[in-house]
Write a structure and sequence with these properties.
Blueprint lengths: L14 E4 L9 H9 L4 E5 L3 H12 L28 E4 L11 H20 L4 E4 L5 E2 L2 E2 L3 H14 L4 E7 L39 H12 L6 E6 L12 H8 L2 H8 L3 E7 L3 E3 L5 E3 L1 H10 L7 E5 L23 H4 L6 H6 L14 H11 L6 H5 L20 H8 L2 H20 L11 E6 L5 H13 L3 E7 L2 H13 L5 E5 L9 E2 L23 E2 L4 E4 L11 H6 L11 E3 L2 E10 L1 H10 L11 E2 L6 E2 L24 E7 L16 E9 L3 E3 L1 E11 L2 E4 L5 H4 L9 E4 L2 E3 L26 H7 L2 E3 L1 E3 L3 E11 L3 E15 L5 E8 L3 E2 L5 E2 L1
Parallel strand pairs: 1-2, 1-12, 2-3, 3-4, 4-7, 7-8, 8-9, 9-12, 13-14, 13-18, 14-15, 18-19
Antiparallel strand pairs: 5-6, 10-11, 16-17, 20-22, 20-23, 20-26, 21-28, 24-32, 25-31, 26-27, 26-28, 29-30, 32-33, 33-34, 33-35, 33-36
Helix pairs in contact: 3-4, 4-5, 14-15
GO biological process, one term: methylation
Keywords: Methyltransferase, S-adenosyl-L-methionine, Transferase
Protein name: Protein arginine N-methyltransferase
């Protein structure tokens, strides 16, 4: 397999241009000119300034006791038209509305404007719209209007049935951030009886997860609608002291904890404004290291987000409609390329020369991103192997009841690490056997090795190679129950293995062990030709010295490795016999995985067992909810945006060593139960448990899918993806959190008065949602491995805990919520 350094994959950056105050309509000529500059898309306001002025005038001239109605759009209210260019546009909903307003009149007007704009955009064939950020602060009211914002989003998802809705959000919630529409919007016109604007001595605090909390309410209200996405604004203004470096500012804006959280959400758009860039020594705009690392991380997602450059300058030549616009292809002049990636702290100290240089590109921000696109680091082996499988749900194999196809074996055999490690383990075992002078069970002192579940024979090849490397003679047996795979084994034995392997067509649980014909010996005990068993020279079954298997699943034991090996362990050499692997341990940790939750929820109507199935999945868009304490901060020049380390706890273990004969008559000894506590520092939503394993093949040779140890024990191993135990929470029927529409001050223009919306109907049903975890809480995961002598399955439940402060001091631990019991018995592994 080629090394990552030879990976010729170049990610695709879809980059668009956005102007918050676009001065001219977006016509076919404008779109064509943008494409000539190497932009992929443009944003366009749905309505014009004329409509803006008309709505503000409606409010300013409003009788407080009247019910305002925003009339339908006219020709002067919009420049958007249904034509071919709409496929290249992201339509922008008016940023001056306030769907979170505590003033019912402003909320109603904003809601009407939203409905009118979405309906018209859908009529024009627009497929992507971006909504303005929910306004989280109104005087002393914090986050009070998010529910009504969410309700409005739910409504427009039913208005534009083919429209993808993107909610524009900052990465963190900074109450002191300046709103670019302040003074020209509806929010500033809120009446004082609804908004308390009195000054407060308490300084508002930055909430790292404040905007995520708002997003969680919106997407939960909309039932994880697959047409709802995040447009993440990475150009948030922040009030900072003059002596703060650019790097420190960007690190404050992009904390690693928040980066990890947004990484697991349905990101569709990343918005960069001119404030996100810093000049290098040539005066050329570049991103800080923090921004570059974040961009690289997000662009590795299975569906990488689009990039919007906001207010970085107009499209060149658009005013004069010049015949040619220079293309931003990322091929920067040498004087610029040499210094295009300095540290921001270095750039701040460098003289701003060449600022008016002839080398300055007309679209420097776009040209820089195109250059950054070409300089993306190569993918890892695991990323290359798993391309297309990220966050894709796969049902675990049933190797005991199903005969695998050749293509399945072929996929397993592509992993070079696993089989290399198996060969190391066999070689070390043979070397130790020879050095310690252990008595072997085979003829003439040959070590008897049995490969059980041999498949197409990769472990057989490795065992023969280890024998040759160590110079230790072996007698090799290959056991396989799949009759189709046995044909391949027999062919390999004839063409590759020189008939050195004893092929046995049998289930390992019913095999009696290595059976050989009677061995005839000469006067000096030399071995003669074997003959058939007779009453004087009967055949014999000999013990196995080394038992080799690759029966592990994503959770170690989920493909019934313990049950399969139970029948083989009594056949091991009672003095020195060993199993490869000799032991393995399962691990768990709670995760937030909204994409997986949405996928499982969409399958549930046709597959009722989907919420109770432990899924094999290459986890990518997830966030670890329980993490270790952050390390000591490093100097700014060395700081990097490293992800917090997850707490991944051991669940249970299985050990395989020689066992007395016969094998146990029941399977109760293979049941397990564990209860695992996890500390939760930051609020989040638990969608399930991620499972991993570590296995010791032979002392000193280990395999691991545990993210904490995989790099040290078996880096780049790709034979197993993690397992995901989905979580569901059952709430009894409860009243809708939204009042009936007749209780709102004014009726919705999209719904008949008194009608019940789809959102209200959803809330009146039994709700099954993930488990919300507040800051500084705890999670307890309880999981059991069960059996009824016919199959093996898992049961799991998650509890959340918090603390109540007691009068007189102290605190009491209280249960905040508990999930339904997940039970995979319906899809359990058959024995």
């Amino acid at each position: 397999m080629d090394s990552p350094e030879h990976d010729d994959y170049v990610p695709t950056f879809y980059i668009g241009q956005h102007e918050s105050k676009r001065s001219r309509p977006v016509t076919d000529d404008v779109v064509r000119r943008a494409h000539e500059c190497n932009y992929d898309m443009l944003t366009a306001p749905i309505t014009t300034s004329s409509f803006h002025e008309r709505v503000l005038a409606l409010f300013d001239n409003l009788d407080p006791d009247s019910a305002p109605t925003v009339s339908a759009l006219t020709m002067d209210d919009t420049d958007l038209m249904p034509d071919e260019m709409t496929s290249h546009l992201l339509a922008m909903v008016s940023p001056w509305i306030d769907l979170c307003s505590p003033d019912p009149v402003i909320y109603n007007i904003s809601r009407q404007v939203l409905h009118l704009e979405i309906a018209y955009a859908a009529f024009c064939g627009v497929t992507n719209v971006i909504l303005p950020r929910p306004k989280l602060h109104h005087g002393d009211l914090d986050g009070e209007g998010v529910v009504q914002y969410a309700y409005s989003v739910q409504e427009i998802l039913n208005i534009g049935m083919f429209v993808q809705v993107h909610i524009r959000l900052h990465m963190i919630d900074d109450p002191e951030a300046v709103d670019e529409n302040m003074g020209d919007d509806l929010a500033s016109r809120a009446r004082l009886k609804y908004v308390d604007l009195s000054p407060s001595d308490a300084k508002p605090k930055v909430d790292v997860f404040g905007t995520w909390d708002a997003w969680n309410i919106i997407r939960s209200t909309c039932n994880y609608n697959p047409r709802l996405f995040v447009a993440l604004d990475l150009c948030q203004p922040l009030l900072t002291s003059s002596n703060q470096s650019a790097l420190e500012v960007h690190q404050a804006l992009l904390p690693s904890r928040s980066q990890s959280r947004w990484h697991c959400e349905p990101l569709r758009v990343l918005i960069y404004s001119i404030t996100a860039f810093v000049p290098n020594q040539t005066g050329y705009p570049v991103l800080s290291r923090v921004h570059r690392d974040l961009l690289t991380k997000y662009m590795r997602l299975r569906n990488p987000p689009w990039i919007l450059l906001s207010d970085v300058g107009p499209i060149p030549g658009i005013e004069r409609l010049e015949p040619f616009a220079p293309m931003a292809d990322g091929d920067l002049p040498p004087v610029i390329t040499a210094d295009v990636f300095p540290l921001p702290s270095e750039a701040a100290k460098q003289p701003q020369k060449h600022k008016s240089s002839k080398n300055q590109h007309p679209t420097p921000h776009l040209d820089y991103l195109r250059q950054l696109q070409k300089r993306q680091p190569p993918r890892t082996v695991l990323e290359r192997y798993g391309a297309g499988f990220q966050d894709y749900l796969q049902t675990p194999l049933q190797p005991l009841t199903d005969n695998l196809e050749s293509i399945t074996y072929e996929v397993f055999e592509k992993c070079p690490v696993k089989y290399e490690w198996y060969e190391r383990a066999i070689a070390r075992a043979l070397r130790d056997w020879e050095e310690e002078g252990k008595a072997a069970s085979g003829p003439n002192g040959r070590v008897v090795i049995a490969v059980v579940g041999a498949g197409r024979g990769p472990l057989v090849t490795r065992a023969l190679r280890a024998s040759e490397t160590e110079g230790v003679d072996i007698e090799l047996w290959a056991l396989e129950k799949n009759p189709n795979a046995c044909v391949i084994l027999e062919r390999h034995n004839q063409t590759q293995w020189q008939n050195r392997v004893n092929i046995v067509r049998s289930d390992m649980r019913s095999w009696q062990g290595p059976f050989r014909e009677a061995i005839r010996t000469g006067p000096d005990n030399e071995e003669l030709m074997p003959g058939p068993p007779t009453s004087q020279l009967p055949g014999m079954i000999t013990p196995i010295d080394i038992l080799v298997s690759e029966l592990l699943g994503s959770f170690a034991d989920n493909e019934l490795s313990p049950e399969c090996l139970d029948g083989m362990l009594p056949k091991l050499n009672p003095s020195y016999g060993l199993s490869i692997p000799c032991n393995y341990t399962a691990f768990l940790t709670p995760i937030s995985a909204p994409k997986l939750h949405a996928d499982i929820s969409s399958r549930a109507p046709k597959d009722p067992a989907a919420p109770d199935t432990p899924w094999v999945v290459m986890l990518q868009a997830i966030d670890y909810l329980s993490t270790t304490t952050n390390p000591q901060p490093q100097p700014p020049s060395r700081s990097t945006a490293e992800d917090p380390k997850p707490n991944i706890l051991p669940v249970w273990s299985f050990i395989h060593e020689p066992a007395p004969s016969p094998a146990p008559s029941t399977n109760s000894h293979n049941t397990r139960q564990a209860r695992l506590p996890f500390r939760i520092r930051d609020r989040g939503v638990c969608h399930g448990l991620a499972g991993y394993f570590e296995a010791t093949l032979y002392p000193g040779v280990e395999l691991s899918t545990n993210p904490l140890t995989m790099g040290d024990k078996s880096a780049d191993m790709m034979s197993w993806f993690p397992i995901f135990f989905p979580l569901k929470v059952n709430f009894p029927p409860s009243p809708s959190p939204f009042p009936p529409l007749t209780a709102f001050p004014f009726p919705s223009p999209a719904l008949k008065p008194g009608a019940e919306s789809a959102n209200e109907r959803n809330w009146k049903r039994d709700k099954k949602t993930p488990l919300y975890l507040p800051d500084n809480s705890e999670v307890t995961a309880t999981i059991r491995r069960c059996t009824d002598e016919r199959k093996v399955w898992y049961e799991w439940v998650v509890e959340s805990w918090g603390w109540n402060l007691l009068i007189g001091g102290g605190k009491k631990r209280v249960r905040l919520g508990v999930s339904e019991v997940g039970c995979s018995k319906g899809v359990g592994c058959m024995m």
